[in-house]
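Subject: design request, 295 residues
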């Protein structure tokens, strides 16, 4: 994806693209690239914005409490669209996308969605602003999906990298259902047991993502055993962290803060019944932020 503008400090440089209104590059002062560059042999994406669903809904369809029908693929309707660059200067930029006939056919709610980017010192703050421009309550989910090169230091292997959480964690994760993109919330496996560290291995993702819905930590770091460099993601506004890489051993890891989850086996197909679904009143704007800091 081509870079349309760059924001930077003396410690971080962030390239942005109008395709998806999102990240195209994150480099440190030495020019080391941290963001996954979208090799389609593994995953052609980089950091899509998920709206108005995170993950999948059953059969790609759902209904709302007022009887409206939703029909959309995994991760919603905006991630492959061209957004409008609304503002850009040295240290901040914003993009906007508005509902149109194409989005209304899948998600019959008028909206404006803005992605804002601001750099300070070594930190990038990303904010998603969801505005209901219609006349009835608007249910939605929103989430980030940034992928990071792994390893990001020359000479390292995937197994040299690890995730370090803010707190010592003991948590399980529900099983993803590969065939449908949904979640079996009743079948769970242990992920962290009295530790802050999750060693990375491709086998973690051979079935799909690790869906961390029980974390107490609001910060996670991607580190290497062999280097001081790393990436920290903080996500106070978003309750879930999904950790994912491609099943064909892709050299990246995505650290994805989500406000909601794919439809779970204990949920029906009413959209407002989904876990942590958000609702914006007519004219209301709701805002969600997370940060990426280079270490």
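Subject: RE: design request

Done. Sequence follows.
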């Amino acid at each position: 994806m081509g870079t349309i503008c760059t924001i930077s400090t003396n410690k971080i440089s962030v390239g942005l693209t109008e395709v998806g209104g999102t990240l195209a590059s994150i480099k440190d002062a030495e020019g080391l690239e941290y963001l996954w560059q979208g090799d389609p042999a593994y995953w052609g994406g980089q950091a899509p914005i998920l709206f108005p669903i995170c993950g999948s809904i059953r059969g790609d369809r759902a209904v709302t409490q007022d009887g409206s029908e939703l029909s959309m693929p995994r991760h919603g309707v905006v991630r492959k669209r061209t957004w409008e660059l609304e503002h850009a200067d040295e240290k901040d930029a914003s993009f906007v996308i508005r509902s149109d006939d194409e989005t209304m056919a899948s998600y019959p709610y008028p909206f404006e969605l803005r992605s804002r980017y601001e750099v300070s010192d070594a930190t990038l703050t990303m904010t998603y602003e969801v505005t209901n421009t219609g006349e009835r309550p608007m249910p939605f989910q929103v989430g980030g999906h940034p992928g990071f090169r792994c390893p990001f230091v020359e000479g390292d292997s995937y197994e040299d990298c690890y995730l370090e959480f803010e707190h010592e964690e003991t948590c399980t994760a529900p099983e993803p259902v590969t065939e449908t993109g949904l979640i079996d919330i009743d079948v769970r496996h242990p992920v962290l047991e009295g530790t802050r560290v999750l060693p990375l291995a491709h086998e973690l993702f051979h079935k799909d993502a690790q869906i961390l819905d029980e974390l107490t930590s609001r910060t996670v770091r991607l580190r290497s055993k062999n280097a001081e460099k790393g990436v920290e993601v903080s996500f106070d506004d978003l309750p879930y962290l999904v950790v994912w890489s491609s099943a064909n051993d892709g050299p990246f890891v995505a650290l994805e803060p989500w406000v909601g989850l794919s439809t779970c086996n204990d949920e029906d197909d009413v959209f407002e019944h989904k876990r942590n679904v958000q609702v914006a009143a007519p004219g209301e704007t709701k805002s969600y932020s997370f940060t990426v800091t280079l270490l």
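The chain has one helix and 22 strands.
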